[in-house]
Every structure is written in C-alpha cells, then in structure tokens.
C-alpha cells in the first residue's frame, strides 16, 4: 500500500467518523419551540432520505438520486452546527460547498469529488431530483413538527405552517395534507386489527 493511499484512506475514515457527530448533534430550532430533547441531525437526515425516496417515486424522479441528495444535505452541520433560521440573520456562515470541501479535503479523491458534487447539486441544481430533495427536507420538518404538536409542544405549530407553505411538488402537498389529520401512531393501527 502506498503512503498516499494510506493517507487518503485515513482521510476518508476521518470523514466517516466526523459524520458520526450528526448522531449527537441536536436540531436546535426545536428548542425555540420548547422541545426539551429534539431529534438529532442524523435522525432528520435519515427520514428526509426516506421521505425523498417516496416523493421521488410519486413524482417520477430517481429515488436513489434523491435519497443521496437528502443524505448529504446537512452534513456540514458537524462543523457549523444546526443554526435555526432565526439565527441565520445574525451570523455569516460559510457556504455549504465550502464546508464540504474542507470536510473531504483529506479523503480519497473519488470520495471527495463525489461528495462535493452531491452537495453542489443540492445547493445549486434545478433538476426534478433537487426539487424533490428540497421538498423532502421541508416535509420531514413539517411531519416532525406535527409529532411534536401531538406530544404537547404547541409552539411547533410555527414550524409546521412555515415549512408546509414552502412545499412545491404536488406529491409533497398531498402528503402534507394527509399528515395534518393523522395521529403519529396511525401507522401501527393496521397491524392491530
């Protein structure tokens, strides 16, 4: 094994280890809504990828591509944290593409190029897959807000309403409408009958 290859392997593993911090980082905007123990960034990203895949199937987009875009959409938060929208007006944050470039600087070139391309596309693209991925991010946030509402956090209503208003695809709007009237444990009722 060459020394360069070993360094690239270590850099790649370093990136993977850094992504583990997303499992511990909380989605801080929910604290504003009074949620004492909000979801982690990784929990949000995982369900965003699932929602994105579902929306992609409904919209005729590539589900694998949307899932990939959704998986990497918040990875920069290992370095900058989860800054709620109310806080963004007070601070200047590096572009996600710049943070990603730093994160993967020591990784294998194919990995670095691939991840940078995914993040760049999510941030700048205009394909159906990008539109669906952005809707998935908002729809997941809205659904999480509905769950927090049902758990007794009334201030989550602001997140539900504001994220719902930003949805664009017919499928995301339809699922948002359905989610508004569904209890969070509804999915298990079909198995209890």
UniProtKB/TrEMBL annotation:
<feature type="domain" description="HD/PDEase">
    <location>
        <begin position="37"/>
        <end position="151"/>
    </location>
</feature>
<protein>
    <recommendedName>
        <fullName>5'-deoxynucleotidase</fullName>
        <ecNumber>3.1.3.89</ecNumber>
    </recommendedName>
</protein>
<dbReference type="InterPro" id="IPR039356">
    <property type="entry name" value="YfbR/HDDC2"/>
</dbReference>
<dbReference type="InterPro" id="IPR006674">
    <property type="entry name" value="HD_domain"/>
</dbReference>
<keyword id="KW-0479">Metal-binding</keyword>
<keyword id="KW-0378">Hydrolase</keyword>
<dbReference type="Pfam" id="PF13023">
    <property type="entry name" value="HD_3"/>
</dbReference>
<dbReference type="InterPro" id="IPR003607">
    <property type="entry name" value="HD/PDEase_dom"/>
</dbReference>
<comment type="subunit">
    <text>Homodimer.</text>
</comment>
